[in-house]
Amino acid sequence: AEYMGPNPAGQPTCVLSSSWMERTPPPPTFTPPTFMPPTFTPPTFTPPTFTPPPFTPPRQKSSAVRRASTTYSDRYIPFRNNNTSTYFSLLPDSPTPGSTPDAGTSSTSSDQKDENTATYSMLLRSELLGLDATPPASHAPTRLDDEKQSPSSPQKNLFRFKSPVSRSPTHSSPFQLSPSTDRPSARIKPRKISKVPYKMLDAPSLQDDFYLNLVDWSALNILAVGLRSTVYLWSACTSKVTRLGDLSPYTVTSVAWTALGNHLAVGSSSGEVQIWDVGRAEQIRSMTGHLARVGTMAWCDHMLATGSRDRAILTRDVRVSQPFTGTLAGHKQEVCGLRWSPDGQYLAS
Q1: Percent of the chain beyond pLDDT 90?
Q2: Helix, strand or coil, per DSSP, at residue 84
Q3: Which residues share a beta bridge with 44?
Q4: Per-residue pLDDT tens for 224-263?
Q5: Residue 312's beta-bridge partner residues?
């Protein structure tokens, strides 16, 4: 193609010559390939040949070799001999019914006892089995012999189980390690105290005074309570409330039952002590002697001790007519507690 320049109209002119058409190659011709089908040749099968290995009989190992080649897993399983009698001897000391005692054998076995082993055996019987650990006369420990059998020998019989022997409370064993000689057979369980009240009683006008003793329980299961100037009785068996007496215009400051629970001593704010017969619900005696209120009392058979705010303690014998038989002075403040010893020889205040 050749550019001829613009024509009179002002547009570019392009002339296509015939020489370009002659230089253009002809289009290629497509010849399809010739398809040749594949040929399949089957493989040649050759059967395998089996040759059995030669048979070799196993060799027998001895028992010593088998024990030496024993393997253990993660669990520890100790090896024990079949003859357990060499390790544990639990036979009684007495001979079997079908055997006859041999003097030579018994003397030989008694001579082989070691002093340390006998002492250790007695100690184990006393502490573990709770049996009598006193060595008998025929088996008393003798002088230590170096030629005797050692205590760790497996032929020794440390535990011989026999019927328990009754031990007296005053028995003392030389092989006892525990501080108490008369140990109980079973541990005593502690008594459980309920945190919930069993019974709730209304007590109006109960004086809030630490130094007064306004409640006391009798041996007949009767509770005495002092409320202001009146004494009330409550039976724990029948839950019945009884009004015993009135001390008006004075108030009740202390109550105390006798040992039998038939009589009740009542102290008042005036210093007077009254004794009431509960069965008949009447006052049988009145005793003076204190200059102030009686805050505490204690019985010992027919003797009654009373303590007052006047810092004096009076002892009274209810069998005599005198109001008191003795005076104990030594307190510098009010006496707020009294207790007799069990034998009645001493009085704590």
Answers
A1: 39
A2: helix
A3: none
A4: 999 999 999 999 999 999 999 999 999 999 999 999 999 9
A5: 329
